[in-house]
């Protein structure tokens, strides 16, 4: 009879599912309203760090004097292509911000991208995000341009949606802490400790007062 290995296999799959929780984190601004574009990181307590997420290839374009997307959350090691879709030059810089990151992107990003000629291919340049941490994007020529890249080595890193909600699946059950980063706060608040059960929903208040964005 060959059904026994099958049973064992399905038991193992069941055990994996039972330990992997779905966690919904709602981030609140200082006024108690949901906070979109906050970066939520769940760090399981103790022992082994989870395997970092696989690097990806991403694009951040410069369009009508804005970085699009305004906030990118990317795994460490990812490659980003900056593409200038405007008809004028941009001199893009990326500077580490927030929590000091000793091994961080100390050298930052420095790119000169010529303006796009009508009908031509836009100028682009690629950088590798070698270290975790937050980078603020700006342009030496246009002071109003502002964007962010959050480089993470945690697979449990998600940006909140328009309702201030970040949903993560397959998070290990047990003790963990939740960190919240937002581009409009200077210092990250204290992590929130929690116990992760199969279905966990928490609200995390912050002191962030989001700036109005020109969109
Ligand atoms: Cu510019």
Q: Which blocks of ≥5 consecutive residues have pLDDT under 50?
A: 1-18
Residues in helix, %: under 10%
Name the shape in a single word. elongated
Largest sheet: 5 strands, mixed
| Count of separate DSSP helical elements | 1
**Gap between N and C termini:** 65 Å
CATH class descriptor name of the largest domain: Mainly Beta
By CATH, the topology of the largest domain is Immunoglobulin-like
Pairing-aware structural class of the strands and helices?
mainly beta
Oligomer: single chain
CATH superfamily of the largest domain: Cupredoxins -  blue copper proteins
Give the neighbour order of strands across the main sheet. 5-11-10-7-8
What small molecules are bound in this structure?
A: copper (II) ion
Number of strand segments:
16
Radius of gyration in whole Å, from Cα? 20 Å
CATH architecture identity of the largest domain: Sandwich
Note the run of SSEs as H and E: HEEEEEEEEEEEEEEEE
Describe what you observe in this structure.
This protein has 215 residues and is mainly β. The chain folds into two domains: 22-50 and 154-209, Immunoglobulin-like (Sandwich); 53-153, Immunoglobulin-like. Helices cover 8% and strands 46% of the residues. The protein is built from one helix and 16 strands. The chain has one helix at residues 3-19; strands at 20-28, 39-44, 57-63, 66-68, 71-75, 79-84, 90-97, 109-113, 123-128, 133-139, 147-152, 157-159, 165-172, 174-181, 192-196, 199-205. Strands 5-11-10-7-8 form a five-stranded mixed beta sheet, with no helix packed on it. Strands 12-2-14-15 form a four-stranded antiparallel beta sheet, with no helix packed on it. Strands 4-3-6-9 form a four-stranded mixed beta sheet, with no helix packed on it. β3 and β4 (66-68) form a beta hairpin. The longest helix is centred in the first third of the chain and has 17 residues, at 3-19. It is elongated. Bound molecules: copper (II) ion. Residues 90, 139, 141-142, 145 line the site of copper (II) ion.
């Amino acid at each position: 009879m060959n059904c026994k290995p099958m049973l064992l296999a399905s038991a193992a799959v069941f055990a994996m599912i039972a330990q992997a929780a779905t966690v919904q984190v709602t981030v609140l601004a200082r006024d108690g309203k949901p906070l979109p574009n906050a970066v939520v990181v769940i760090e399981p307590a103790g022992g082994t760090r989870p395997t970092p997420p696989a690097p990806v290839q991403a694009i951040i374009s410069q369009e009508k004097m804005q970085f699009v997307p305004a906030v990118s959350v990317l795994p460490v090691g990812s490659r980003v292509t900056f593409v200038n879709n405007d008809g004028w030059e941009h001199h893009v810089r990326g500077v580490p911000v927030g929590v000091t990151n000793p091994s961080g992107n100390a050298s930052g990003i420095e790119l000169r991208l010529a303006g796009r000629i009508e009908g031509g291919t836009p100028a682009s340049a690629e950088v590798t995000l070698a270290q975790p941490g937050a980078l603020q994007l700006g342009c030496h020529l246009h002071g109003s341009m502002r964007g962010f890249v959050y480089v993470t080595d945690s697979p449990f890193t998600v940006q909140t949606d328009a309702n201030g909600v970040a949903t993560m699946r397959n998070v290990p059950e047990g003790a963990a802490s939740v960190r919240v980063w937002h581009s409009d706060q200077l210092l990250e608040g204290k992590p929130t400790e929690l116990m992760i059960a199969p279905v966990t929903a928490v609200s995390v208040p912050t002191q962030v007062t989001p700036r109005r964005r020109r969109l």
